[in-house]
Here is the input.
Amino acid sequence: MSEIVLQFCAFPSFWGRLIDYGTEGEVGHVDALTPDRSQLFGAQHDAGLGGAPAGVQFRPTGYVREAGGYNLLRVHLACTPAQHDRFWRFMKAQEGKPYDVKGILGFLAGRYWHDRGHWWCSQLHTAGLEPKVAGVFPNRLWTRFNRLTPQELLLVTSALGRVERVLT
Here is the structure.
């Protein structure tokens, strides 16, 4: 067996606080921990975090702490090697794509403004876990992948995997 590890946290930045407020959650961001545990992969609005540009990028694991991240949780999702490979192939194919600012604003306004080829964090990881990509979620989610907040993705994945609190 293999595993996909998602790391959830909250950030004290303007966008982090806005997402926390808009979703009433304890976490407002999610990244995937690379298999070798050396990097995090996800979509960030802020350029410069971990030395990477804004958008979908690999960042060093320490960037969360450097940016003041808190409420760190990791969810370990058991999967087959084939699911693991499909998940990471999908993730790597998204590298360099822009952050979905318009979609986030639409999300907060209750409208569908998702721009194809643009991602925010939970939207990206939910899409990678769905049955048509990696198949870690055993069934199709009955909401659009662009409607799942980091807090809701934590809820869904915590029911499927082991949760670990990461001390900071």
Observations:
- The domain at 2-165 is CATH 3.90.1720 (endopeptidase fold (from Nostoc punctiforme)).
- The chain has one domain: 2-165.
- The longest strand covers residues 70-79.
- The radius of gyration is 14 Å.
